[in-house]
Design goal:
The protein is α+β, with helices and mostly antiparallel strands. It contains three helices and seven strands; from the N terminus they run ββαβαβαβββ. The chain has one domain: 3-Layer(aba) Sandwich (Aminopeptidase), CATH 3.40.630.
């Protein structure tokens, strides 16, 4: 990735990589309308994964918390993403809200667009 605005995070346990997340500077017109983001920075969580055998140990929360801190320091006003149906409750606990009807991504499943004002 050659864009200097993209953020890649990894979480390590005992020097072994156990989770990753990528954040892109990317506006969404529907989100922009919700929180008056015209001419403001907005980021998209493009992907996040935690190894299945260690899920439930707050590593995903740590990744999101660190990303939110970094984005706030860059004066980013919102973070949005397309969340898998199975992950919606995780993101709701982190303060994100659903802003779309459910939609299907072929071969992946049902998703919801979610966002949080930072």
């Amino acid at each position: 990735d050659d864009l200097n605005t993209t953020i890649h995070l990894g979480i390590f346990v005992e020097e072994r990589l156990h989770g990753v997340a990528t954040f892109l500077m990317n506006k969404d017109l529907n989100i922009e309308e919700l929180i008056s983001l015209e001419h403001q920075q907005c980021y998209q969580l493009r992907g996040m994964a935690i190894k299945a055998e260690i899920q439930g140990q707050q590593l995903g929360s740590q990744l999101i918390n660190r990303a939110e801190e970094m984005l706030k320091n860059k004066n980013v006003l919102a973070l949005w993403f397309n969340a898998r149906e199975s992950a919606v409750s995780f993101y709701k606990k982190k303060g994100y809200q659903i802003v779309s009807e459910p939609f299907e991504i072929a071969t992946v499943g049902i998703h919801y667009k979610m966002y949080k004002a930072l």
